[in-house]
Amino acid sequence: MERTILTTIIITGPPGVGKTTLVRKICSNLRDKGHILRGFYTEEVRSEGIGQRIGFDVVTLDGKHGILSRENPIDKLRRPKVGKYSVFIQDFEDLTLPLLANKDSRPEPELLVIDEVGKMELLSKRFESAVEQIRKTSGSILYQVTKSNRNTLSTEITDLITMSLLVTK
After folding, report:
1. Could you write out the DSSP letters of every residue in the chain?
2. How many CB atoms sit inside 10 A of residue 149's CB?
3. Is domain 8-168 classified as CATH 3.60.110.10?
4. For the AAA+ ATPase domain, which residue ranges apply (predicted)?
């Protein structure tokens, strides 16, 4: 019997359940074990003072920030919208597409992290195409995050990735 090598872990769940927090914990656990990671996550941007959400940023795992969306962009340029947010497609592509292509001098990552493939991100057809290419490989596992399992999944997924990386080396 042929074993399928783990290539993709898909984490899904309702808004606010803790998916990004889970991904960040997994990344931290894997870095602590010496694994090479590349990718990005999204995070809310809140206004100063009242703390109301005004948009989202893209943050690479090596700490670079870029704008994904804003409620009322200062530059007033016309951009595609998702709900009340104007989406900065070019900024998003400039930051994320090089991470997916790996045409730079950094070592090949053991793990590529893409936290958030939603309506805003899919306004970029180039990003959508790059993600489709990545997902065409077999070996995907889907995790549904809930409030009852979100605290135990980080260890379970970290262990699964670590074992899979040991098998593929």
Report:
1. -PPPPP-EEEEE--TTSSHHHHHHHHHHHHHHTT--EEEEEEEEEE-TTT--EEEEEEEETTS-EEEEEESS-TT-----EETTEEE-HHHHHHHHHHHHH--SSSPPPSEEEE---STTGGG-HHHHHHHHHHHTSS-EEEEE--TTTHHHHHHHHHHHHHHHHHHH-
2. 15
3. no
4. 5-168
Tens of pLDDT, residues 78-136: 999 999 999 999 999 999 999 887 555 556 667 888 988 899 999 999 999 988 887 77
Q: For residue 41, which amino acid is it?
A: Y
The domain locations on the chain are: 8-168
Contact present, 47 and 54 (Cβ < 8 Å)? yes
* CA 65 to centroid of chain Cα atoms: 13
Is the pTM higher than 0.85? The answer reads: no
Report residue 18 as tokens.
Answer: 């803790």
The token pair that represents 149 in the structure block? 């399992």
